[in-house]
Amino acid sequence: MKKWSKFSFSFLLIAILMFSLAACNTNTNNSKTKKLVKVRLAEVTRSIFYAPEYVALEKGFFKDEGLDVQLTTTAGGDKTMTALLSGGADIALVGSETSIYVYAQGANDPVINFAQLTQTDGTFLVSRKKIDHFTWDQLKGTTFLGQRKGGMPQMVGEFVLKNHGIDPHKDLNLIQNIDFANIANAFASGTGDFVQLFEPTASIFEKEGKGYIVASFGTESGHVPYTTFMTKQSYINNHKGTVESFTRAIYKAQQWVATHSSEEIAKAVQPYFPDTDFEIIKTVVERYKSQGSFSTDPILDKEEWNNLQTIMKESGVLPKEVDYKAIVNTAIAEKVIKK
């Protein structure tokens, strides 16, 4: 009887242990198969300038945070903001100036900047002819193919020109009526002596002999919240955990980019530029890293915000001064960094 009791007790212990292990395995499997939260992200253009965003996708940082981020390219600030406001996107990556335009129109559900991605202008001045010793006054009297009026590239471009003593509307034949997506094609077809282009287009043109990079608007303009992740206030109210997880993934990517080589970053983002030569991707990444274009954290600070409004005011497109705290939320980014 005693032997049977010992056997029963041992059997019972084994059964309990096996049940516990099975329960642990079930919980582990459930955590692995937990449904990801879908986030629709609209980016204003496809550019190596946004390398940390692609790193977050490629390295699985979003998935690590329980997010299924679905990226679409909407080609232009107006289209990107329309997608966000109409409910076609949950989060937008676009210039902060667009949030000011929306706020100035008296939006009931303002668009909030919650995570900064880039902190300088991302465009370069490209000349049709090779210039060994470029000076800004060489632009006078030429045809300049600029960006869409009211957008960050155009505003920063004109701000830089004015700082070099050039009145873009008097000293140049300024063309601004070409759609953002068609500017590069227009220049390649023979329009303009100079053009303001994003990468990798600028470097591709240089490699193909269609143009030559002579200056960087990013190094000339100082720090600005050039492209930030933003969403409607209502989305933050209803999905605060999702926004925080999104920001955490971006911060991981920013830190990864800051601590890895241009070649490693180029390999990570290459899938998003399948038609671009790897060496060009690496060159572009190095160019942006060297001029400090990639933000190393997602905080949009007040000095950058004020610089943005100064640039907008100089361009004559600032509808009104907007207080930093009105449409900038740094609490989420600060919480992420502290953790």
UniProtKB/TrEMBL annotation:
It comes from the Bacteria. Keywords: Signal. PROSITE patterns: PROKAR_LIPOPROTEIN (PS51257). Coiled coil: none annotated. The keyword Nucleus does not apply. Residues 1-22 form the signal peptide. Gene3D superfamilies: Periplasmic binding protein-like II (3.40.190.10). It is found in: Periplasm. Residues 51-261 form the SsuA/THI5-like domain. InterPro entries: SsuA/THI5. Pfam families: NMT1. PANTHER family: ALIPHATIC SULFONATES-BINDING PROTEIN-RELATED, TAURINE-BINDING PERIPLASMIC PROTEIN. Belongs to the bacterial solute-binding protein SsuA/TauA family. This is NitT/TauT family transport system substrate-binding protein. It comes from Neobacillus ginsengisoli.
